[in-house]
Prior knowledge:
Chain B: GO terms for molecular function: ABC-type phosphonate transporter activity; ATP binding; ATP hydrolysis activity. The complex is a heterodimer of chains A (270) and B (257). Chain A is mostly helical.
Amino acid sequence: MTNETHSLTNKSIPLYPAKTKLQVTIIFFVVLGIYIFSMAWTQRDMVSGLSGALGNMYRVIEKFFPPNFSILPDIWNALAQTIQMAIIATTIAAILTVPLAVLSAQNITTFKPLYYLTRTILNLLRTIPDLVLAVIFVGLFGIGIFPGILALTVFSLGILAKLISETIESVDMNPLEAMRASGGNVFQVIWYALVPQVLPQFTSLVLYVFEINIRASVVLGMVGAGGIGLVLNQQLKFYNYPNAMTIIIVIFVTVLIIEYISNKLREALL
Amino acid sequence: MIEFKNVGLVYPNGTEGLKNINVKINDGEFVVIVGLSGAGKSTFIRSINRLVTPTSGSLLVDGEDILNYHSGNLRKLRTKVGMIFQNYNLVKRSNVFKNVLAGRLGHTGTLRSIFNLYSNEDKALAYESLKRVNIEEKIYNRADELSGGQQQRVSIARVLTQKPKYILADEPVASLDPPTSHQVMTYLRKINKEDNITTIVNLHFIDMAMEYADRIIGMRAGEVVFDGPVAEVSEKTFEEIYGRSIREDDLRGGAEE
Ligand SMILES: Nc1ncnc2c1ncn2[C@@H]1O[C@H](COP(=O)(O)OP(=O)(O)OP(=O)(O)O)[C@@H](O)[C@H]1O
Ligand SMILES: [Mg+2]
């Protein structure tokens, strides 16, 4: 009797089964191998490139200074366009997200085919990079703010619907059951038991996506989707580096201000 | 009247939740269902408002077989069968009044309820229900600011606002301490007697079952193994239902001294 308990405490019981341990070890070494290989590979190209780049850097940076602030009055309009693009796209995406997020939440959409269909559409949507979207829409509708808004809407819809459907999947299902038990229909159950649980998270995520959209809309502008990115691209093309520098500073400050405001709002919410 | 006729329920994974149940529950009765964990008490109760659907037999509520009900009928059934849960199931971020008004959902159109357009009668009824369980001073508190016992009283008020003909309560006191448990059970019985609402409660405390029930149904492994008025029940009955001798933790204790 005492012998048995003794042997039990002596032979330490592993936390994970031996098979799992072996698998994890193999995966670890495979990943490590890939890292070492790719480091060796890129080093070959980088070492020569690096010394050249350092030399170039000084010459390039020199060209950008001093920034030409006299163009400031001419870029407000483009900046306003960029912000408008982000606001409109975020708003449309936030509205369209609601049905999509509900349909792609496993705990609400118990009809499996519908759930898998929406999931798949959203996954496909997310695989398209925002730049590709912008190029496609600019190709379809020509240069301007409209294709930019479309690209941003589709892009942020993918992110937002995914994040919000995950929030929905983590809610407390008990109140939903109570609403169903008292005779509420699907819409009433969602409105009364689900919405109050996800609303703070929803607002916070929409603000977060808005921040992403401000930055993305600058980049999209560079491929012709309107706004300040478009102006920046033109100045760079004509080698007006001091003008470009002013625009870069303005973008930098704008992004900082908007992130600050949005952070404060989100803090207040949660 | 609720009538189980040869009702059986097999869960998708093959577990038999109910086996050939034949029970008739008369209007106005206060029935307590007892049995060990896994005996099928929840399955029994949740069949009545079709949160689960029996796979054989027929289940009559007011003379109609509810087993072939679909969305429209189902909503109507659920408006007349109120339910109380072990975990209160309130919307924690909403205030007490909104939680209680949710009891009117089954009686209210979708648009009206979404825009909070409840009639004055509905609001008065909700307030009246809060008063009946003495929690009206918490009307604008958020539900998660209340203690467990207070939350369960709010959930009783929600059911009262529903104006049901039947109340189902699945372990309503399992998460509460003894004095609060007795308070909640006292409210349930008072409502049962005053409004003549048929009440079916799952409990696993023997002493509470004896104190509040008119009639006790004992379940074991999905079957009804005892059914009779409380006067016929003794400690031996429980030993037969449970298939073992009575222990300390089968008793809630704390009855009014
Ligand atoms: N959704 C489900 N799927 C499969 N089996 C289930 C499901 N719900 C319950 N069961 C099984 O059915 C049987 C009866 O469960 P039920 O919940 O009705 O018991 P109970 O008497 O309410 O127990 P407790 O006192 O623990 O709440 C149990 O064996 C349980 O494991
Ligand atoms: Mg149960």
